Amino acid sequence: MAKTEGGEAFFAQCRHTGKIRHLQGPPPWYALWTHSHCEQLVHDQLAVRGFEVFLPKLEIWSRRAGVKHRILKPMFPGYLFVRDELSEARYAELLGARGLVCVLGNGAGRLTPVPNQEIDAIRAVVQSNLPALPHPYLAAGQRVRITRGPLADVEGILVGRNAGKGLLVLSVQLFQRSVAVEVDCSLATAA
Fold first, then answer.
1. DSSP letter string, 140-161
2. Do 38 and 120 share a domain, yes or no?
3. 23 and 78 assigned to the same domain
4. Angle 119-85-137 from CA coordinates, rounded to 5°
5. In whole angstroms, what is the distance from residue 34 CA to residue 95 CA?
6. Which GO terms describe its biological process (predicted)?
7. Residue of 1, 71, 138, 158 with fewest CB within 10 Å of its CB?
8. Is 112 buried (19+), middle (13-18) or exposed (0-12) by CB count in 10 A?
């Protein structure tokens, strides 16, 4: 069996139509991984080729030569999103973008779509013009440490993340009991 580089197996089941099948609605979004500082380069190349591309950016303060000014930086350095009905030809065209490393997938040669609600949430943050800062990824069930406030340096398990709030579960293993307290997720870092 031939070794695949990423994507060949994805299209093996679709060769008779040349398209990815979608039951309904718009085509899915995919995450693209780029070389360092190549997000805008990849974005511009794909936009010219007719792809729907989304590169979310944050406005941040920067100081150069002692002068402070606002600049736009990618919200997710090294990543951007593309939405397209990826036929085999379009996929090859996508991979031809200078600065692109790969399209993210599950490691079995299949592309993994990004849920529309995640893209919509990111768009809402960008369009709101509210201050936003990068934050380490915290998944429900992950062990975290609180960095500030009355619970500083307390460690527990983060559960039930919702609208910036989460439940920090503290457990006593000896007698198998737990207590949960609501915390601001911006105060939590991976333990």
1. TT-EEEE-SSTTTT-EEEEEEE
2. yes
3. yes
4. 25
5. 11
6. DNA-templated transcription elongation; transcription antitermination
7. 1
8. middle
Partners of 67 in beta bridges? 64
Q: How crowded is residue 55: how many other Cβ atoms within 10 Å of its Cβ?
A: 22
Residues 161-171 pLDDT 10s = 677 788 788 66
Structure tokens at 151: 């619970």
2 assigned to some structural domain: no
Q: Measured between alpha carbons, how far is 132 from 130 in angstroms, rounded to an integer?
A: 6
CB-based contacts of 169: which residues, under 8 Å, 6+ apart? 156, 157, 158, 159, 178, 179, 180
In the chain, DSSP assigns E strands to 29-34, 52-54, 57-64, 67-74, 79-83, 100-103, 113-114, 143-146, 155-162, 165-172, 177-184, 188-190
Strands 67-74 and 165-172: unpaired
